[in-house]
Design brief:
The complex is a heterodimer of chains A (117) and B (117). Chain A contains no helices and twelve strands. Chain A has 117 residues and is an all-beta fold. In chain A, strand 7 and strand 8 form a beta hairpin. Chain B is built from no helices and eleven strands. In chain B, strands 2, 4, 5, 6, 9, 10 and 11 form a seven-stranded mixed beta sheet that branches. The chains are: A mainly beta (117), B mainly beta (117).
Chain lengths: 117, 117
């Protein structure tokens, strides 16, 4: 089984600042995906960014980027030029890559990110 | 693209009744859907994996006779909470796997808040 750990229950930064959310995971799998999902107060889970473990290049999506360190089993999320709308719970998630089927996600406990005006 | 709907968004029922929740992938076909449960201020926990045309796979500790899952088509999965009790009150979220083009990403419905009186 795999575990996902988010060690920062809550973070608060000023608007326009850069913030980094930490995530570490533990697995014996060699083939997997990692994700960051955002859950605003509406509770709708929104995909922020995904990373395939076999890719060395860090994923980026506009203001969001990751620092994927496979050997260290670390997968942090950097949000640049933070905006008020970024205020939400952020969950780091792991998914084993199966041959033909699909596996569910294992989530961390989440980090509550607050962007201050 | 990749929109998942869930119905109802909120339901209140009496103890002992059964409640059905629908999850639909609106713009893609999903051979696999997942059901998660989220208690207040907690993370998402995988309950079961729903595969189109076959029996669902339940996580350890989840009663399959209590949480009935049916995945009758490539766009619809249903979760029925049978003989609901107050301890079943929770936020239930489905996700649908989009495996087209090697993406293998889960997209989430907006969730269903179940309150059992």
């Amino acid at each position: 089984a795999q575990t996902v750990t988010q060690s920062q229950p809550e973070m608060s930064v000023q608007e326009a600042e850069t913030v980094t959310l930490s995530c570490t995971y533990d697995t014996s799998e060699s083939n997997y995906y990692l994700f960051w999902y955002k859950q605003p107060p509406s509770r709708q889970m929104i995909l922020v960014i995904r990373q395939e473990a076999y890719k060395q290049q860090n994923a980026t999506e506009n203001r969001f980027s990751v620092n994927f360190q496979k050997a260290a089993k670390s997968f942090s999320l950097k949000i640049s030029d933070s905006q008020l709308g970024d205020t939400a719970m952020y969950f780091c998630a792991f998914m084993k890559r199966s041959g033909g089927g699909a596996d569910g996600l294992t989530f961390g406990k989440g980090t509550h990110l607050i962007i201050q005006p | 693209g990749a929109v998942v709907s869930q119905h109802p968004s909120r339901v209140i029922c009496k103890s002992g009744t059964s409640v059905k929740i629908e999850c639909r992938s609106l713009d893609f076909q999903a051979t696999t859907m997942f059901w998660y449960r989220q208690f207040p201020k907690q993370s998402l926990m995988l309950m079961a994996t729903s595969n189109e045309g076959s029996k669902a796979t339940y996580e350890q500790g989840v009663e399959k006779d209590k949480f009935l899952i049916n995945h009758a088509s490539l766009t619809l999965s249903t979760l029925t909470v049978t003989s609901a009790h107050p301890e079943d009150s929770s936020f239930y979220i489905c996700s649908a796997r989009d495996g087209a083009g090697g993406l293998d990403t889960q997209y989430f419905g907006p969730g269903t808040r179940l309150t059992v009186l």
